[in-house]
Amino acid sequence: MERKKETPIDSELRQRAEKKLDKDGGNIEFPSEISPEKTATLIHELQVHQIELKMQNDELRRIHEELEESRDRYSHLYDFAPIGYFTMTEKGIIDEANLTLAAMLGFARTVLPGKPFSRFVLKEDQDIFYKHLTWTSQNQKGFNNF
Fold it and tell me: What is the mean pLDDT of each run of 10 residues along the chain (146 residues)?
C-alpha cells in the first residue's frame, strides 16, 4: 500500500495523537498475547476507521472549496458594486471599502482602511455624522446581545 507524504500539519497531528495515547495509558497488548482472530478484527477496524477518516477529509475539502467559492462571489459583488460600500468601527474608522467608494473619494482602496470616515464628511454635516455614529454605537450594543 502506497503511503502519502506527511505534511508538517500531519506530523504535528500525529505527535499530538501519540502524546494523548501515552497520557491515556493506551491499553497496549503485545502481539504475542493477541489471538489471530482478534488481530484480524483489529486490522478490519483500523481499515474501516481509515476509510471513515478519508471520507471525512474529502467532505471537509469539498466544504472548504465551497466556502472559498462563496467568499469569492461575495468579494466580487462587494468590490465591483456600482454603489460605494464600506464598513467601519464603532469609532468611525474605515475597516474596508469597495472599489467604487475608493474611486468616489479619489483614493486607492488600500489607503482607506484605518482612516476616519469623518474626514470625508462635509463640515456642515459633521454633527449629523457624529450623532448617527453615537446613536448606532449605543444601539448596536443592545443588538449584539441577541
Answer: 62 82 70 82 92 95 96 91 93 94 95 96 94 84 48
CA distance 10 to 29: 26
Phi (first) and psi of residue 94, to 5 degrees: -70, 125
User: Any alpha helices (H) in the chain, and if so which ranges?
Assistant: 8-24, 36-79, 99-105, 126-143
Q: Tally the residues of the chain.
A: 146
- The span from the CA of 131 to the CA of 126, in Å, is 9
Asked if residues 94 and 104 have their Cβ atoms less than 8 Å apart, the reply is no
**Which DSSP string corresponds to 66-78?**
HHHHHHHHHHHHH
* Cell of residue 53, nine digits: 477518516
Q: Which residues contact 14 (CB under 8 A, 6 or more apart)?
A: 6
Tell me the three cell numbers of residue 66: 465551497
Predicted confidence at residue 108, as pLDDT, reads 95
CB 82 within 8 A of CB 98: no
User: What global pTM score does this model have?
Assistant: 0.53
